Amino acid sequence: MLFDAQDVLHSWFPPIPITFALIVAAIVYSRGWLRRRNAFPHEIPVWRFYSFIGGLFALWVAVGSPLEAFDDELLSIHMVQHILLMAVAPPLILLGAPTLPFLHGLPQFFVRGALGSLLRWPPVQWLACVFTHPVFCWLAATIVLIGWHTPRAFELALHSQSWHEVEHACFFTASILFWWPVVQPWPSIPRWPRWAIPLYLFLGTIANDIVSAFLALYDRVLYPSYASTPRLFNISPLDDQAFAGALMWVFGTFVYLVPAVAITMQILSPIGAHRQFKARGRENKLTALQPDRPEMEVR
C-alpha cells in the first residue's frame, strides 16, 4: 500500500503553466488591490484580499498539487478535486471582488485600449447579460455536473489528459457562473431580488443530490477504471465510490445551506432591509452610468 502511494507521488510533477498562471493572477490582483487600498482604504476590505488568495490556493490544490496524482487511483480523491473546483474556489474568488483590483492591477494602456474596447462591445455586453442570468447560471452548473459524472464522459476524462483538463475547466467555469448571483461581486447588478437566492441555492442542491445519491447507493462500480486500479489504503472500489458519494452529499449540502441561511437572516434583519434599500440605490446609479461611461472604473 505504502509502496503504491510512493510510486504515485514519484510520478507527479507540478504543472508549470497552471501554477504560473495562478501566480500571475495573484500578483495582478495584489497590485490592483494595493493601489485601491492606498487611494481608498475602506473600499475593498482585507478579508476580500484573503478570500481571493484563498480561492486561488484552493484552485491550485485541486489541479496543481499532489492531489492531482491520486485522482486516477481513488474516486474519493477525485471527488475532493471536484468539490474544490465547484464549491470552494469559485465563491472565494468572487468574494474577493476581483473586477476592480484586476482593472487597476493590469497595465493601464491595455485596460484603456484593447480590454476597454472589448468590454464596451455590444455583443460582449449582451453575452455577459445572458451568462450572468440566474436561470442560465443554474442550468449551466446542473448540466455540467450531471453530464461529466455520466460513466462515458467520466471515463473519457480519466483516459485523456486533455479531456481531463476540459472537464476541470467546465466545472470551474460553470461554478463561477453558479455562484455569481449568490455572491454578486461588485460592480455587477442583481438580476433577481435577494430573497430569491435561498430558493436558487436550494434548487442548486438537486443535481448534487442526484449524483451523490447515485454514487453512494449504486451496488456496482460505476466507473470501470477504478475497479482495476491498485487498492491504495486498502479501500475497495465500491467503498471508495460510496465514500465519494457521501462526501459529495455532505459537503455539497453544507456549502449550499450556509449561504442560504446567512442570506435569509440578512434579509430578515432590520440592518439587512436598510442595506437592501441602499443596494437598490447603487444599482440604479450603476445602471444610469454604465451605458455612457463603461470606462469609469479605471482612473
Topology, number of strands: 0
Mean pLDDT: 83
Q: Give the DSSP E fraction (strand runs of 2 or more residues).
A: under 5%
Order of helices and strands: HHHHHHHHHHHHHH
Biggest pleated sheet: none
Helix content: over 70%
The overall number of domains is 1
The stretches of 5 or more residues where confidence is low (pLDDT under 50) are 285-299
Helix count, per DSSP? 14
Measured distance between first and last alpha carbons = 58 Å
Label the structural class. Answer: mainly alpha
Rg over CA atoms, rounded to whole Å, is 21 Å
C-alpha geometry:
globular
Please provide a brief summary of the model.
This protein has helices at residues 2-10, 16-39, 46-63, 67-70, 75-95, 99-105, 108-120, 122-131, 134-148, 151-159, 161-183, 197-217, 237-268, 270-289.
Written overview of the protein:
The protein has 14 helices and no strands. The protein is mainly α. It has one domain. The chain is globular, with a radius of gyration of 21 Å. It starts with a helix and ends in a 10-residue tail after the last helix.
SSE layout and pairing:
Blueprint: H1 2-10, H2 16-39, H3 46-63, H4 67-70, H5 75-95, H6 99-105, H7 108-120, H8 122-131, H9 134-148, H10 151-159, H11 161-183, H12 197-217, H13 237-268, H14 270-289
Helix pairs in contact: 2-3, 2-6, 3-5, 5-11, 5-13, 9-11, 9-12, 10-11, 12-13, 13-14
Salient structural properties:
299 residues; mainly alpha; disordered C terminus; 76% helix
